[in-house]
Structure formats: C-alpha cells, structure tokens
Amino acid sequence: MDTRLIEIVPNISEGRDQVKIKAITDVVETVEGVLLLDVDPGKATNRTVITLVGAPEAAIEAAFRLIKKASELIDMSKHSGEHPRFGATDVCPLVPIANISMEETAEYARKLGKRVGDELGIPGYFYENAASEPKRKNLANCRAGEYEGLANKLTNPEWKPDFGPAEFNEKVKKSGATAISARDFLVAYNVNLNSTSTRRANAIAFDIREAGRVKMEGNKQVLDQNGEPVREPGKLKAVKGIGWFIEEYGIAQISYNLTNISITSIHEAFDATCESAQSRGLRVTGSELIGLVPLNAMLEAGKYFLRKQERSTGIPESEIIKIAVKSLGLDDLAPFNPEEKIIEYKLNAANKRKLVGMSLSAFADETASESPAPGGGSISAYVGTLGISLATMVANLSSHKRGWDERWNEFSEWAEKGMALKKDLEWLVDEDTESFNRIMDAFGLPKNTDSEKAARKQAIQAATKYAIEIPLRVMETAYKSFEVIEAMANIGNPNSVTDAGVGALCARTAVLGAGMNVRINTGGLDDKDFGAKVTQRVDELCLLAQEAEDRITKVVYSKI
Questions:
Q1: Which among 40, 424, 430, 432 is annotated as catalytic?
Q2: For labelling, which of 185, 228, 280, 326 has a CA lying 20 to 30 Å from the CA of 52?
Q3: Are 431 and 496 in the same domain?
Q4: Is residue 367 located within the same domain as residue 325?
Q5: Is 539 a catalytic residue?
Q6: Are 422 and 328 in a shared domain?
Q7: What is the pLDDT of residue 227?
Q8: pTM, whole model, 2 decimals?
C-alpha cells in the first residue's frame, strides 16, 4: 500500500455556474483512493479553488481528468473575473503532505504536465519547484499578460511552453494555458477592510508583501544604476498580496498568498495588516480563508491570541480554534466551519474511524455489546485520558485563579503538557482496537498451502507484536501523566486537589489495565526474548504507577 500522500489544488476559471463546477469536480471522485476535500467558488473572481488528496499516481490521474473536463466546459475566450488567469484550469500545484519529498512531488508535476500537453493539447508552464529555469519559478512571470496576451507569449522563443503546443490554435483559444507546480503548502488568505477603495487596499498590500512597492520621488520611479526600478521591501517574508474590490461583499480586501506559513503565519499577516490599516485611517473587519488550512496553522493562531490575553493555551483543541476564528474574524463574511476548512478534520471525517468521537453513552453501548472490541486496552487508554484531563482542568483553573494572575504562564505550560498527553491517549483508544482487529484479520488469512500457512503465521506474529506495543504505549503515556497530576496536587488550586487525586486513580488504573493486555498477548508470541523484555518493563511501570498514586493520594488527604 502506498503511504505517500500529496495534495493537489487546481484553480479553475469558473466560479459562478454551479452546474459546470459540479461536473468538473465530480470527475475527481471517479478515481479510487482520491478524496475531494474542498470546492471553494468565488463569484467576483469567477474562479473555484478545488482541493483533492491521495497517493501520487491516483492524485495526478484525478487532476488530469479534472483538467480535461474543465477544458471541455470552460471557454476562456468568454471569461472575465477579478483574479489574474490564463487558462480553464489556471494553476495546478502539487503539495507534498506525507512520506514524499519535494523532489519526488516535482517529478509527479512534470509527469502530469507531459500528459496534459501530449494527450489534451493544452500548453503550459512548470513553476516553483518544478520550474525548468529560474525565471519560470515565479507564477506571476509565467502568467504575465494573462489570457489576453497568450497568443503572443506562446510564439515568443523565451516563453516556449514546457509542455503542449507553442501556438494559439482553436483548441488553445478555448482552453488557454495551465501552470503546474510542486510547492510548499500555500494559504490563500483575504483580509477585509471597512473601505471600498482598491487603491487603499493596494497601499496596505504593498506595505505588507515581501516585494513591497517601487520607490517613488514625486511622481517618478527611482531607478538603480542599471535603470531598473528600486523597490522598498514590505514588512513580511514569503507573502504575496494585492488589493481589490469585491462586489459580492461590497468591500475592499487585501488578497494574500502566504507561500510559507512557517516563515509568515496567518496571525502575523493579520496583525501586520491591522497595524498598516490603522495607520492609514482604515480598520480591518475580518478575514477569510480560501480553500483548506492545516490544523497547526489554526492552533498556532489561537494560542497566539490566547497568550496576548494572558490566558492558558492548554485548553481543548476546539476552544483554541474557536479563539482563532473569532480573533481573525473568519466568520465575518460567512460562517467558518472547522470540519469543512481544516484539512486534517476533512481527512478524519473521510476515514470515519473514531471511538473517541462517540458520545459517552454510545461508547459505553459499543463496549457493552457482544463485539470483543473495544475491550480492556481501549478502556484503559480512555481512563488514562480522563485522568490527565482532570489534571489539565486543575492547571487551567489555577491559571485563572484570582490573585494568581502572575502565574498564568506557569500553569499554562502544565496545561499544554496535559493536553499533549491527552491527545496521545485519545489516539491510543482507537489504536488498541485497531491492533486487536489486525490480529483477527491475520487469523482469517487462508491456510490451505504451506506458503499460505507460513504467511499466515508471520502475519499473526507481527499483529501480536503490535497488539503488545500499543498497550505498552498506553502504560508509558499514562505513567508520564503522573508528572502533571502530581504537580497539580502539590501546587495547583487547592480547591481542586481532589480532582488531581481522582486523576491519579485513573492514571494508575490505565497503567495496570493496559499491563494486563500486554501480558495476555505475550503468551502467543514466538519471540520469547522480546516478550521477556516487555514483561520486565510492565512490572516496572506497574510498581512506579502504584508508588506515584500513593504519593499523590497522601498529598490530597493532607489538604482535604
């Protein structure tokens, strides 16, 4: 099974005709193993940003079918819109997501481009990490002149296309050209102004974007010794931006491409825009994300604004995202649904595997049913989750305790540790059940021939080892949670000391319960050395957990 994952983000030059958009995006779902994650049309720009994800071969097949369908349904000779464009599928960037390098992704981009040129007769250019020469790395250079200048561009020897015909024939007149790339994750991000002035919006964009603006003296450009315009760089690196007026909303916006959010984050771009707007007598009213956004980008934004408020960042993920949405004004123009806009949430929804997503009642019903999973391993992990959750609650209550204002960051750090452990244990709830299912699958393999028997035995042993490793990880993680629990019992809000005490009881139960699951699975293991080492570690962790629980309960009873 190919564990590599790439995201492809085709931008088509149609944002108004929903029937055409659906016909184009429907072809993505005809490719097995590819998920259509997002379709984000814009009326004013007359452009739709589409996001799909899958293993490389399947993903580029889906992108090829999409480009083909777009060229059949969109006539570029009749297109108009606010956004720069030169093709029915204007751009098609490939983004490495998991277990694949940028170099490999660039090779897939070139493979896709060759098919588009050879089989569809659509010309185009490779840009960014797939570029054939330095001047083609920049999309703006490749797309300069837009559709209206394409006839001249294709016949210019300096701009001979990287794939497809170098002529503006009848087919190309309809399809235009396509730019294909391999690039880092790009966030398309628009900031809203309390203004209708494109000129004022552009002035802010020039303040912020890396390219800045051309230096002026009076009405004349300042030139360098080579006669080239001198530029005044903007405030932020890895940011492109322009201002425009969006008739659909009746406001001016600054439209940014954040080309590397590890250099300039969403919240940094937002705050810098607020400062620039205020200095020019304008006000930012909110912002919008086009397409999908990585989870971490939203979490970092939420934590940034929480720290500015001197509040704990060790709160549930959903609350951090809520703070990010409100602080960035992402619901200014339309409701912001994290389940639809955050890439990891979309993937999780598509995978549909989450015991921890059930209600308490449904989880208990599933456990009580005649199905053997979830069993003691998953329950141990969940009890551990509850234990560290209680300690994290104490940390957050302590960070808000009246008279302890100067200690908010101290308790925030403890809460962050707790939330990280909680997240690990939540994953283990599902993974313990998954490890059991692997054993059942292995036992279900055919055993008619000697080779089948050997393969089946090997699969059973591998699955058994995994079913040992997962509850052992539950033990290790639950034991780590004692650090936070003990700290909260000793220094946390004294009114919540019993919560820390119950957390300790839960953590001990998680360690001992998971230990039982490790022991029972070692019995069926051929690798006795591995089994002996694991059993020794189980004994150590059980003893350490009981000692930790004893220390904490003594502290709790001394304070009651």
A1: 432
A2: 326
A3: yes
A4: no
A5: no
A6: no
A7: 82
A8: 0.73
